Amino acid sequence: MTPVELSRTVLRAVRRAVDEGELSVVVPVRAVVTPPGPGGCGDYATNIALQLARPAGRPARQVAEILRPHLTRSEGVADVAITGPGFLNIRLGGGAGASLVREIQRRRDAYGHGDILAGQIVPLRIPYDIRAEVVADTLVRIVATQGGRAEAHHIHIHPSRAEPAGTDPSQAKTAGNDPSPAEPPRTNAPQADPARPHRLHRPRPQITTLRPTPAPEDPTPLGPDAARWALLHPASHDRPRISADHLLQRESNPLFRVRYAHARTRALIRNAAALGCTGDPGDVPEDVPGGGELVGALAGYPAVLTQAALHRAPDRLARHLVTTADALLAFQHTVLPLGDEKPSAAHRARLALAEAAGTVLAGGLSLLGISAPDYL
Fold first, then answer.
1. Which of 128, 218, 314, 360 has the most neighbouring CB atoms within 10 Å?
2. Average confidence (pLDDT) over 204-216
3. CA 216 to centroid of chain Cα atoms
4. Which residues, in sequence order, are CB contacts of 270 under 8 Å at separation 6+?
5. β-strand partners of 81
6. Residue 141 to residue 368: CA distance in whole angstroms
7. How would you classify residue 186: left for phi > 0, otherwise alpha for psi between -120 and 50, otherwise beta?
8. Which residue has the higher pLDDT, 150 or 38?
9. Cα(256)–Cα(289) distance, rounded to whole angstroms?
10. What span, in angstroms and rounded, lies between the C-alpha atoms of 324 and 94?
11. What is the DSSP string of 260-315?
12. Are 126 and 97 in contact, with CB atoms under 8 Å apart?
């Protein structure tokens, strides 16, 4: 079961609770499903009970208790636990990993793309600064994955002003510094045109001012890939570290780990082909080193892309790629047969999972404007 399928399953559980008179709420359009956070358990978690608590007029944990049996009876769901103020933690039954891999195989580079910003124009105002320009260039691609269109415009910032002339500081945002929950940028309500009473003005998109902390020095000597990583990996409010460490082929270098993990997935596919083995989606047991972490990272990728687009924060994507790479590097040793061992269904399932990880790593690096070599 993919995150999208599980989201629909959660909404069906809400609808059943409403139809049976247990809840009096409007069934929401979507249910957010993500990997469990700290203190959570299972494969996925949803905050749907917290979302419905106020309209239902009940405590969130009580709403969660109402939804729990409906979710537990859903096909593909093995168990549901309630944690914290009312989070529903879902453990899937057989086929969860296989469905996820099939989804990635089907969508390829479009995996994780959504429509939360469909039809929206996202104006980005940036100073004449190399880091701001790289962030804006990356956000154009990330916003497009969610159906929006980002447009970057340069501005001149007077050193004595916090914001450019003519800007209302209360309306400006700096990418990556907004701690509020993710939500689509708001637009002004349409106003009637007095001259043309039967027409409405088009809503004006909210302008985002990108002012990330500038780099202490010119990063271009690092080369295009390392320079972009040095500017994009830190959060917007953090000062980038411009050093040759970004060029080192060592485990201490996050960029190297991400690109090396992608190269390892390509090597695994080549080596498997030499053994006459191809990937075939299947379940990977929880006790396989790195397997559960890798499935969780791949399943969480769509939510990360959404958050990166809504918060104008490409650093979220960069950090998630590091998490995915670390899981793959821990998992890679289990993929191919050892010694005289013959390729089995388990090996084919692990190979398919590794190949899916390679697809996500390559896609994420491409959005950051960084190459994903097959050999490293």
1. 314
2. 87
3. 29
4. none
5. 89
6. 8
7. beta
8. 150
9. 21
10. 22
11. HHHHHHHHHHHHHHHTT---------TTSTTHHHHHHHHHHHHHHHHHHHHTT-HH
12. no
